[in-house]
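Hey, I'm writing a tutorial for new members on how sequence and structure tokens pair up, and I'd like a real worked example in the thread rather than a made-up one. If someone can provide the structure for the chain below, I'll link this post from the tutorial.
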Amino acid sequence: MKLRLIRRSWCMLALPLLAACVDRSATLPGDALPPPANATLLRCTVHVDAASMSCVQAPLTDARGNRIYGGQEKFVKLASFGSAFDGGTQIFSSNVTVQNLLEQNIGTTDGSTVAGVDVFFASLNVTSGNGSVALANADGTGTFTATNQPYYHYAEILSPYQISAAKSWQFQMTGTVSTFSFTVYLSSPVVDQSIPMLDKVWTGATSSDWMVGSNWQGGVAPDSASTVAIPADSLLAPGHSQPVLTANVFLTNLRVGYGSSLGLAGFTVTAYGNVDGVGAISGGTLKVAGSSAVIGGRLSATQVTGSAKLQRSTVTSGAVSVTGTLNVKDQALSISIP
């Protein structure tokens, strides 16, 4: 694989491969170049016999590139499911997805040609027991932060808040390995590196009012062109408020992180792009008006007037009305009408 740095943004992250996909994260580094000395990542530990993985913070010292940014639940999210250990083959496996949390597509340099997303390993070490561990099914090796780094390639363009198809990660062990740990990073091209990585991010520093500019990073409330992020509750500053609408609003993409909420207060939020409700969107109406949108999570009463598909199991707290098209293939849709 050729070294690709000129038109590539680097996403530094660590992968908390947990059985349940949650938004709880460590303190995240900013997007300075290079990262500050106190930047942190997550190093993951695999307990083989228990078929479990857990992650803790570790200092970042080894990643450099065209642009380095962190991290899990801020700019990108990796999640896993179906972790298992086969004692016969000595293979530990897990299904891993990538979610784009930036305000523009990743995995492409022109918006239409698929270049894909690479998740590469910076370290992989046995931490207890005897033997060795290596990737059994990596898609290749390349030069990212060093030479001969194994990686998994996700051959997709991911739009904001879109989740990739899952890939099976397999770790081959020899001997009597009890635990091992690893760190991973994500590398992907973007169309325009001059575009900020994040758009409208809620802070709730002043009040719960969506329309008050001082509640948003940058001091300006979203408009119809905005990609909006309500971060996971654990990532917000102490004393913050959760957002509540005081009027109908229009935006492009919307995500509500774990433990956070968006109160619609009887109003309508119209999205022309993707919607990801990890936290709850409730108390009014969500109108999905765009084309080829992906939606999912905990949503309010929902009107689909454009075209959309579910990308995760979805529960709505009100009726679902479809005058456009809604593809629910392979995903559960539950409707709860008060």
